[in-house]
Amino acid sequence: MQQKVLDHYLEYGLFTYPGLYEDYIKKLPDDVRELGLLLRTNFLHRTTLDAGNVETNADLKYGDMTKMPWWRQAEDDNLPTTAAMLAEFFRRDPKGLSMGRKVEDKLVLTCRNVAILMASTLKAKGIPARVRSGFSAYFEGTRDAWDHWITQYWNSSENRWVTMDVDGSWHRTGFDMYDMPDGKFDFSANVWLDVRQGKREGSHFKNAGGFDGLVCIAWELFHDFHCLMNSETLYLHHPKITMLGNFKKLQEDKLKEIDNLATLMQNPDDNFDKLQHIWETNKEYRLLKGALL
Hints:
293 residues, alpha/beta, five-stranded mixed sheet, two-stranded parallel sheet
C-alpha cells in the first residue's frame, strides 16, 4: 500500500472533522468492537423508531420506543457532520457517549452518520479509515439489496482493509460484522458494472426513497466516489447528470465514462492517482445539486 494513500485516509474531511471534540474521541475505546458497540448504543435508526417495539426491536435491544417523544424523527439533515453529532450528544446528556444513554436521548440517525463517526474516531486515533457507500442484502428478511454505508479501516499488522458495518452490527447475519468477508457488501462500482453488463438485474438494488435500477445505483456510485475522496456527501446531494430527469437522457458515451470511473473504483488504492485527478478536474462529477446547491 502506498503511504500517500494511507495518509489520505488519515485526513479529516468536512464531515469527519471532529473539531474541538478530537481529544475526546481519541480517548474512546481502542478495540473496534468495543468502540462500535459504544457508538451503536447511542444511535437509533429511523426505521426502528417508525416500527416501534416489533420485528428487530421485539427484544427492546434498541430501547423502548414508547418512551420516545411523539415529535422525534430522523435527524440526518440536522446533524450531517461528526462535530454536529458530538455536540448534540453532549447537549442531550453531559456524559457524552455512554452505554447508559436513555432511549429518548439517543440520536435518530442512519447508516451514513454511524459510518462517519466511526471513521472519524479511527482517524483521530491515527488509523486510516474511510466511509463506503453501496448496497447490502444480508439483513434478515431482506430479499433485495438496499443502499447502505459502512466503514473500512487499515489493519497495518495484516496489511489489508477491514470492512465493518457498525450500524448493522446488531442484526443476525451469520458472519462477523466487524470483519466482513469479501462479497457480503456490494460495493457500488461492482454493482454498476454488473448491471451495465447484464450480469445482475438492476431492479434488485433499491434505496429508502423508493427508487431502484441504474439511477439508484449511480447515486450510490457517486456517493462512494466522494467518500473515497474524504467527502461523505449528504444523501440528497448528487451530480447534476444523475438527477432523475437528466439521467434518463444520458447518451451511451456518458454512461461509458461512468463505466470507466466504476472500473477505477473497483481498485481504488492502485488507481488512487487517477481517481484523484478526476476529483480535481471533472466538474460534472464533483459539483453537486441539492436543496440549496
